Amino acid sequence: MTTTGEEHTAAGTGPWWWVRWRGAVLDAGLAGASAAECGIEGIRFAHDAGLPVPVGVGFGLLAGLTLLLRRKWPIAVVLVSIAITPAQMGFLMGLVGLYTLAASELPRRIIGALAGMSFAGMLIVTFVRAHQGVVRGDVAMGDWFVPFISLSTALGMTAPPVLLGLYVGARRRLMESLRERADSLERELQLLAERAEERAQWARNEERTRIAREMHDVVAHRVSLMVVHAAALQAVARKDPEKAVKNAALVGDMGRQALTELREMLGVLRTGGLDARVQPVPLAAVAVAAAAAAAASRVAGDSVDGPSLSELDELVGQSAAAGMVVDLSVEGDSPGYAAEVEQTAFRVVQEALTNVHKHAAGAKTYVRLAHRVSEIAMQVENECPPEVGAASSVRLPSGGNGLLGMKERVGALGGVFVSGPTDAGGFRVSAVIPAGGG
């Protein structure tokens, strides 16, 4: 079956080989007109051939009705029109058949061959009829009239329908191509929108994790020290008032530092445009959602001036002031690291010291930092905690996310993180971070 245009509709509801009822009605009307034309021309054909008029009319009607098959078998319609050309009938069928043939998806060589046959048949028949008219004296023209009228008639009966059919077929194929391309583009946009929404959701989750990690780092260490100092303050309040006043001042300083860092982070969250509400967006804007979320994450991360390794002595001093025995050793000179590397290294040491306060109060702790050519290495190791003592009586809550947060921080920069108990009953935390931050 050959497609001619009506078949490209979304759903077929017409009878038989028609996709739509409108196409069936059109073809029925054309076939009726062609049958009427061939029936009338069959009268003259019957007189010329010496046949009964009803036979000529019936033959014309039957031949004209073949135009009803033009959408399914356009080749057969064109061949029938060529076959009845000598009888001087089927002109409408020839025009419509050639148009349908040229507009179909048939190979160009078949269309060219049938159009050539139709042109040759019309040229010969017209030439013979015109020559007979000149010979009988019906037409008084020069010798040029017969070939001119023959060629003009043949061209007029074949070239316009073929050219129009080729144009309509090419336009139809172009429209189909554009429609398919538009459908494909719409599917791709939908897929991109889904992926963008997934990336945006991933970016939001990453941002929530990062914020939770920063909040944990800011709060856990200082609050842990505040709890330790509060316990010490309670123990020495009556025995040593001066030391109690000193511990109270330390608790106040640490509380103010914790509040300052929290205010800075909350200020970034307010000004960074991080809105927890998910608003519906147009399809064109969804493609940039992930990039916007990632950019917001970077802005929020870069806007906070995080700690650096230069504050490591102060960090160790705070733990020492809380009663922890801390031994700090640094190897090599710092070549100057990226801010994220120094911040991560500081947070690892901070969280490790916080864990010592929580789980091994009173244990001696060793903090080792090594500056190497292309990396920075750090290790925090505590001895086995004492079983008795005032320090050991302090109980601090633990969320269980400290080690996981340290591992995620170091892994995000392409580093290696290892933690675990030692043979002596203590605990060791080790990390190596590339100098360039991965």
What does this structure look like?
This protein is of the alpha+beta class and 438 residues long. The chain folds into 3 domains: 6-140, no CATH class; 183-305; 307-438, Histidine kinase-like ATPase, C-terminal domain (Heat Shock Protein 90), CATH 3.30.565. It has helices at 21-49, 53-65, 74-83, 91-103, 108-136, 145-236, 241-271, 283-286, 289-303, 312-321, 339-359, 402-412, and strands spanning 326-331, 365-371, 375-382, 416-421, 427-434. A 5-stranded mixed beta sheet has the order 1-2-3-5-4, covered by helices on one side.
Rg, nearest Å = 47 Å
Low-confidence stretches: 1-10, 273-304, 388-394
Q: Which descriptor suits the 3D outline?
A: rod-shaped
Spatially, the strands of the biggest sheet line up as 1-2-3-5-4
Tell me the number of strands: 5
Which range does the strand content fall in? 5-15%
Whole-number total of structural domains: 3
Report the biggest beta sheet as strand number plus sense, adding barrel if it closes.
5 strands, mixed
Terminal Cα span: 63 Å
Mean pLDDT across residues: 78
Helix content: 55-70%
Number of helices: 12
Structural class: alpha+beta
Helix-strand topology string: HHHHHHHHHHEHEEHEE
Summarize the structure.
The protein is α+β, with helices and mostly antiparallel strands and 438 residues long. It has three domains: 135 residues, no CATH class; 123 residues; 132 residues, Heat Shock Protein 90 (2-Layer Sandwich).
